[in-house]
Amino acid sequence: MDQNSDFGGKPLAYISPEATVASDATCFPGCWIGPGVRISSGVTVAPGAAIGMPSPKCPSGETEIGPNVWIGPSTHVETGVMIAEGANIGPFNHIRHGVDIGPGAYVGPRCTIMDHARIGEATNLVAEVYVCEYAELGSHCQISPGVALVNDRYPPTSVDVRGPVIGQCAILGVNSVVWPGVKIGYHAMLASLSEARENVDDYVLVRGCPARPVCDVRQIRLKHEGQWIYPYPWMRFALPGEDITQPAYRPENKRWGQK
Question: What residues contact 185, with CB distance under 8 A and at least 6 apart?
Answer without folding.
Answer: 167, 170, 199, 200, 201, 202, 203, 204
